[in-house]
């Protein structure tokens, strides 16, 4: 994490002061852009299939992916046919939009889309142009609803429902807009969101991350024998939560190593661990599969939303007319 990013979650500093003018410019540009869509200067793209956005107002990992996984499975259980779109951050495919398949690499699509496809095996398109992503899905599949992984600030894309994920530990940092703070939009934006959900709190509208069975990175097989010691490696927004969950399972951490979010690992990053056991997140694992040693493992997590989240979601689906065979 850079010094600027570190300053976002610390008391007001010189770095924050120096960056405030840039934040003011960022805020003005964002406000004008949003206003232009609201008054009709810019025309949004309206999908034939309803779109549910799962996003946030701050940069860095807030726990969107576990909620997207849960939301897909929940909607599917209601009999809905569900597809996903994603920006594919970090991916460098030869062409976009890109339909993700079992052969798609993290270098092409980014880490989160590959993780999502591996888990869900559902129609998933990545690319910087969300309109093209949606059009490809609608052209190739008969869907009842599309989940957009991120995209709350992409006002060109009309949406039926907005779900905003908030990290309960880091919240909104120092409360400033980028680059002086972590916010993409001011906290007042939450007033217009359909569902604000805290990740990892006891709030009425929240979800807990429930650790699943540890799996081997190389082949995804579940591990039945207990792991006593390991090095913890992660490239996520909030690594402390991951490390706490390992300790809660009685695993003694030999060391902890934090890389920037979406970091592209190489085998050299792990040379220092020799033949020791290594534990990582599922998002890290999809990037390390090709060079993983047999004693490298990852911890999958599942989101468990509160009844209030589920009840409100049901009301929103009914209100927006999102049902099977739209």
UniProtKB/TrEMBL annotation:
Transfers the gamma-phosphate of ATP to the 4'-position of a tetraacyldisaccharide 1-phosphate intermediate (termed DS-1-P) to form tetraacyldisaccharide 1,4'-bis-phosphate (lipid IVA). It catalyses: a lipid A disaccharide + ATP = a lipid IVA + ADP + H(+). ATP binds at residues 58-65. GO terms for molecular function: kinase activity. The keyword rRNA processing does not apply. It is an enzyme of class 2 (transferase). Its EC number is 2.7.1.130. NCBIfam families: lpxK. Pathway: Glycolipid biosynthesis; lipid IV(A) biosynthesis; lipid IV(A) from (3R)-3-hydroxytetradecanoyl-[acyl-carrier-protein] and UDP-N-acetyl-alpha-D-glucosamine: step 6/6. The chain crosses the membrane at residues 12-32. It comes from the Bacteria. PROSITE patterns: PROKAR_LIPOPROTEIN (PS51257). It holds the Pfam family LpxK. Belongs to the LpxK family. Keywords: ATP-binding, Kinase, Lipid A biosynthesis, Lipid biosynthesis, Lipid metabolism, Membrane, Nucleotide-binding, Transferase, Transmembrane, Transmembrane helix. This is Tetraacyldisaccharide 4'-kinase.
């Amino acid at each position: 994490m850079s010094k600027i990013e570190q300053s976002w979650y610390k008391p007001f500093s010189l770095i924050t002061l120096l960056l405030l003018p840039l934040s003011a410019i960022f805020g003005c540009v964002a406000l004008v852009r949003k206003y232009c869509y609201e008054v009709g200067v810019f025309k949004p793209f309206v999908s034939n299939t309803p779109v549910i956005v799962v996003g946030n107002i701050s940069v860095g990992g807030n726990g969107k992916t576990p909620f997207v996984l849960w939301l897909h499975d929940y909607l599917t259980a209601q009999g809905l046919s569900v597809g996903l779109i994603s920006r594919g951050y970090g991916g460098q495919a030869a062409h976009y939009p890109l339909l993700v398949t079992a052969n798609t690499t993290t270098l092409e699509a980014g880490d989160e889309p590959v993780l999502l496809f591996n888990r869900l095996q559902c129609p998933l398109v990545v690319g910087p142009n969300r309109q093209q992503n949606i059009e490809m899905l609608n052209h190739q599949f008969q869907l009842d609803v599309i989940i957009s992984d991120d995209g709350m600030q992409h006002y060109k894309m009309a949406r039926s429902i907005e779900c905003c994920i908030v990290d309960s530990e880091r919240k909104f940092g120092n409360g400033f807009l980028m680059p002086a703070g972590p916010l993409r939009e001011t906290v007042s934006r939450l007033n217009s969101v359909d569902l604000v959900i805290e990740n990892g709190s006891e709030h009425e509208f929240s979800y807990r991350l429930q650790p699943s069975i540890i799996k081997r990175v190389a082949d995804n097989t579940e591990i039945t024998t207990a792991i006593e010691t390991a090095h913890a490696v992660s490239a996520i927004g909030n690594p402390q939560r991951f490390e706490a969950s390992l300790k809660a399972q009685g695993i003694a951490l030999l060391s902890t190593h934090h890389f920037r979010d979406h970091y592209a690992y190489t085998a050299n990053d792990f040379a220092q661990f020799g033949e020791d056991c290594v534990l990582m997140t599922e998002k890290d694992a999809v990037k390390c599969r090709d060079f993983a040693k047999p004693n490298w493992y990852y911890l999958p997590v599942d989101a468990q939303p509160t009844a209030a989240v589920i009840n409100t979601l049901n009301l929103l689906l009914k209100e927006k007319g999102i049902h099977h065979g739209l």
